[in-house]
Amino acid sequence: MKFNLERTVVEAAAADYFSRVKNPINTALEQAGLTMADIDQVEILGGGVRTPKTLENMELALGRKDLSTHLNGDEAMCFGSAFIASNSSSAYKVKHVFLTQNPKYDVHVKISALKPEDGLTEDEQKLLGVEEEEIIKYDQEFRLFNTSDYIGKSKGLSLNYDKDMKIELFKAVGEGEKELIDTFIFDNIGS
What is the pTM of this model? Predict the structure, then answer.
């Protein structure tokens, strides 16, 4: 079947989709802490470069007419996806290509005894005759990830714990302020 379809009909039918173009732009600027005045050049990637209405809406959202399309947008997207996949895969042994995307906030972890009475201090353990090398730090708090880490980075924790425990994850929301993200309970550790 073959027929003619006018661009205006397609643009009217997809008006809701075209209106969404500005949302990722605003989100990216907000996350980066930038304004359009801070941006010198914009390079467009992906299939949207072939849709005039998308480019028009981007120009309106960005407030500029000098959008660049020097790269093959489809190819650049494919390479980027391949790099992310290879970095995440344990099946492929390739040199890591580290991305410069960073977490939006620091992540802190707090480890404590599930029952406060179980969280013996180092001095209390010494009084009970526990040897120095066997002393357990029942209450620990430290920064697990910070904003200078890259997304996808993993860290391992090694714990010596013989009581039921609670692990809490917090995100830093301000100077010295933290917001609880999640809590994990591990019980029946000593049994």
Answer: 0.50
